[in-house]
Write a structure and sequence with these properties.
31% of the residues lie in helices and 28% in strands. It is of the alpha+beta class. The structure holds cytidine-5'-monophosphate (C5P). The site of cytidine-5'-monophosphate (C5P) has 10 residues, from strand 3 and helix 5.
């Protein structure tokens, strides 16, 4: 995931996270939603380079850089993550210059901002070394969660079951590399707006958790596809109401040859289709690109 350079800089990939299933199980009294989610990672992501510097700075490049142009520095999760780490352990960490190559669509349900923030934390720990603090792991987890509900799972960077609002994370044995097509129609979706559309009463239970038991450690693609078909993404309906183009994405994926399962990730708008063969996913991605040249389309393996 990362490479050090003799000049003292470090380059990391911040892979896209995909919620293969996302069940909303309750709404807490504070308004946040309790989830039970199966999170996997794609082999496509943003690329982040960090180097020690006199002060914090961020340079954004890449195909989706423009989407971040209007974000004030204090709201940028990448800068926030770096500052938080220095504030928490000022003797150990110091400011960094960061270059972010934004390859993932923004506000897209694939954790771009959370993945970037997690990569900043991981990269700075590699650059400066972890502080000699027995409570470091616990404090780092709390800091990650404060940055965003998806940051702790992105810090794991491997398939996990995620419960609560993102604070209970169980790493899973590696998935068998599920062949997938990811698609984003280029419409940013507001996560709070999608959760609000669920209309759940604070302090009340909602739907059931993930189907028990999860597939065993040696489960192959077929077994995972079968199990995933018993799960759902509870944010799909409210997200479609918020951004109707999500319905068009799901329909376009469902019409692809060889598709086995179609679902939305996170709070959208990115949707994915799963296949039982990688070449079927690649052919389907080419077909979809031809039909929707303005959509972001990628063939991938999720693990
Ligand atoms: O923490 P994050 O920035 O990902 O969340 C954005 C917003 O989405 C929260 O402020 C909250 O309104 C909503 N949210 C929620 N329950 C979650 C995660 C997010 O209600 N588990």
């Amino acid at each position: 995931m990362s490479a050090a350079d003799p000049s003292g800089s470090i380059t990391l990939t911040a892979p896209a996270k995909v919620n293969l299933a996302l069940h909303v199980t309750a709404r807490r009294a504070d308004g946040y939603h309790e989830l039970d989610s199966l999170v996997a990672f794609a082999d496509v992501g943003d690329v982040l380079t960090l180097r020690p510097a006199a002060d914090f700075s961020l340079e954004v490049t890449g195909p989706f850089a423009a989407a971040l142009a209007g974000v004030p520095a204090e709201d940028n999760l990448v800068l926030k993550a770096a500052r938080c780490l220095v504030q928490a352990w000022p003797g150990r960490f110091s400011p960094v210059h960061m270059r972010l190559e934004k390859r993932l669509p923004v506000a897209a349900g694939i954790g771009g901002g959370s993945a970037d923030a997690a990569a900043v934390l991981a990269g700075m720990i590699r650059l400066f070394g972890p502080p000699p603090d027995e409570t470091f792991d616990d404090r780092l987890r709390a800091l990650a969660l404060e940055l965003g509900a998806d940051v702790p799972v992105c810090l794991q960077g491997r398939a996990c079951r995620m419960e609560g609002i993102g604070e209970r994370i169980t790493p899973l044995p590696a998935l068998p590399g599920l062949p997938a097509v990811l698609v984003n129609p280029g419409v940013p979706v507001s996560t709070p707006a999608v959760f609000a559309r669920l209309g759940l009463t604070p302090g009340k239970a909602a739907g059931s958790g993930l189907t028990d038991p999860l597939p065993p450690a040696d489960a192959g693609i077929a077994q995972w596809l079968e199990w995933l078909s018993t799960c759902r993404n509870d944010l799909e309906a409210p997200a479609k109401a918020e951004a109707p183009v999500i319905g068009a994405c799901l329909e376009a994926l469902a019409a692809l040859p060889g598709v086995r399962l179609v679902r939305m990730s996170g709070s959208g708008a990115t949707c994915f289709a799963l296949f039982d063969q990688a070449d079927a996913a690649e052919a389907a991605a080419r077909l979809l690109e031809g039909r929707h040249p303005d959509w972001w389309v990628t063939a991938n393996r999720l693990g």
